[in-house]
Specification:
3 copies of one chain form a homotrimer. The first copy, chain A, is of the alpha/beta class and about 180 residues long. Chain A is about 40% helix and about 20% strand. Chain A has one domain: Rossmann fold, CATH 3.40.50. The interface between A and C is medium-sized, with 30 and 24 residues.
Chain lengths: ~180, ~180, ~180
């Protein structure tokens, strides 16, 4: 198998809520190739979430094809692996979906990280920082932020690049 | 119109609570000129806040002149635009004040960002990162952190420099 | 007194929950010397905490000797000061322990920062970012995050290096 420059490149973009992660990820994906594939993990459980999905969709245009993958990210990555860059938005919702479905999120994270080595087209993941506030009083919230942090670490290890988004602007964390 | 070095420079400093943003901002402002003008958005609604304002004031001395502007930042910037550097502390409280007064914070943010191009003297904004904790259970808190993140992105776009403060020390985010 | 390279070096590592701070700190400590000394501030008040302590211990092996110091960090640093690097994990729990015991945490922080100048062997501190979420509704939580931020600033000032951990990867903040 030939190894082409930029082929298979994997990028993780993290940051707080409304730090501009998705916009940055969309720009990075389109810089890697047009059209690009948007792999959405969001499920419209309520109005707040469907409003947010609609807002994200309104920012994307004919440059994008959308695939929905609330839980089976590996399937979605395999199915879309060709030459077009993929944007997975986002890992935190994917984790939420796995937990709500009572799936083994640790095994799924490990498998997702391992899958990246077999991907030929670029993939950009968006995820959330949820661990920099005060310790939540709620045990479930503490368990979730622990899980989210571990997912971020595991995928960051497997990715070629890691970016931290601050007020819409990226800081490169990896490679250092 | 002549363009002088350092004239009109705009800087946004963000970070978590007690990350040393205000101290850093005060140092940066005085490095740009003395005396400097402190544009306070805080309103003393309760003892906790008045204690905090007093603490901030005690750190400033004869090098500073204070202007209060809970909501009309554009007015305060225009009125103080000369040669002295201005420090606006902080955008997160300004947003809170606009929301409490039921003003259109999105229009106000857009106008504030646009105003920066017309300012001759430097202006340094302090703001807060509020989006890196667990998703708040409270819908109002979620709406506020979304708004705060959008204000930060919009003003960061309009500023020449963006700094992220960690444990009292600045990381430069923009220009990269 | 001779000043040896690396002798007495002090490092502060901060980041959100599950950002990989402890793993990074352990790697840094062992890079400075083997075996290393783990100064644990954790106290097993409940099952959640004892599980977390067990997890941390399982990651360490014969390369480590453990000293428990829930509150008297200066005593522990003096007692262990020789040639072996020390890892203090973590300052946020130390602050919690001081507050629960009704001790003067500000004086203790000041004394700890001053002590660093007298230490001959390296010391690495781990601490938590707790101020980047939404403002807590609870006044005690607000007071704690203020105190935690001040401890981080004070110790960061006294340390030679400051690192911010993102998804398991370090960003150098100081020296800039």
């Amino acid at each position: 198998m030939l190894c082409h420059d930029r082929m298979g490149k994997s990028i993780l973009i993290t940051g707080g809520a409304r730090s501009g992660k998705s916009t940055l990820a969309e720009r990075m994906a389109l810089a890697l190739g047009r059209p690009a594939i948007y792999i959405a993990t969001a499920q419209a459980h309520d109005t707040e979430m469907s409003d947010r999905i609609a807002l994200h969709q309104s920012r994307r245009d004919a440059d994008w094809r959308t695939v929905e993958a609330p839980r089976d990210l590996i399937g979605a990555l395999r199915e879309t692996d060709g030459t077009e860059p993929r944007l997975v938005d986002c890992l935190t919702l994917w984790l939420t979906n796995l937990m709500l479905a009572d799936e083994d999120w640790q095994a799924a994270t490990h498998a997702l990280a391992a899958e990246l080595a077999h991907q030929s087209a670029p993939v950009i993941f968006v995820t959330n920082e949820v661990g920099a506030g005060i310790v939540p009083e709620n045990a479930l919230a503490r368990a979730f932020r622990d899980a989210a942090g571990l997912v971020n670490q595991r995928i960051a290890d497997a990715c070629d690049e890691l970016w931290f988004c601050v007020a819409g602007h990226p800081l490169k964390v990896k490679p250092a």
